[in-house]
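In this section we walk through a basic example: taking a raw amino acid sequence and producing a predicted 3D structure, encoded as discrete structure tokens. The instruction is simple. Fold the sequence below.
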Amino acid sequence: MYIDEYVISGFIIVALTIAFFGGVYRFIKNDIAKHKGDTQH
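The resulting token sequence is shown next.
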């Protein structure tokens, strides 16, 4: 596989995107767990 700056930057963008959505997923999961006992909607 030919490695140049475009391939490297593509991998970096994919890794940052996965990290971003992983952080959003963790935040939502923790928020749901924190408010599990709430009765108000």
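Looking at the output, two observations stand out. The helical segments are 5-34. The chain is about 75% helix and 0% strand. In the next section we compare this with other chains.
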